[in-house]
Amino acid sequence: MKKAFCFVCLAAIVAGCAKQPGEISPVAMGDVYSNVSCNHAVQLYNKEAAKVPALVASQKQAVTGDAVGVFLLGVPVSSLSGADLEGEIGATKGKLVALSAKLDTCGKPHTPITWG
To answer: I need a labelling partner for 9 at 20 to 30 A (CA). Which of 17, 37, 61, 98 fits?
Structure first.
């Protein structure tokens, strides 16, 4: 019984850890960019894409911080301190997916984004 309880506690702690940037799902944006001009869509796409390297680096630090925190203290420190950027990454991914779809309809090329 003690082992089962410890296992459940450990599973709960690990589930609260920050996710790798590539594992985070995009937030659905629907057709929010359908009325945006093609040129404006390019500008918005480039603006969102410029955020990606900093978001990826920060999220990777949060993942590492959580791993260390769980190992040393049994607590996902980064997730609890607000360093986990899962929501912001999900929103940025969603914007990029929606803008990418808009750019595809416009016939405008765009650079694919890698999430490390």
So the answer is: 61
User: What is the token pair recorded at 13?
Assistant: 């702690």
Long-range Cβ contact pairs of 81-84 (< 8 A, separation 24 or more): 83/18, 83/58, 84/18, 84/59
pLDDT tens, 9-40? Answer: 444 444 558 899 999 999 999 889 999 999 99
Interval 41-89: pLDDT, tens:
999 999 999 999 999 999 998 888 888 888 787 877 666 666 788 999 9
The tokens of 116 are what? 């490390």
CA distance 44 to 57: 21
Rounded to two decimals, the pTM is 0.79
Evaluate whether 22 touches 116 at the Cβ level (below 8 Å). Answer: yes
Per the CB < 8 A criterion, the answer to whether 13 and 74 are in contact is yes
Within a 10 A sphere around the Cβ of 67, how many other Cβ atoms? Answer: 16
What letter represents residue 94's amino acid?
G
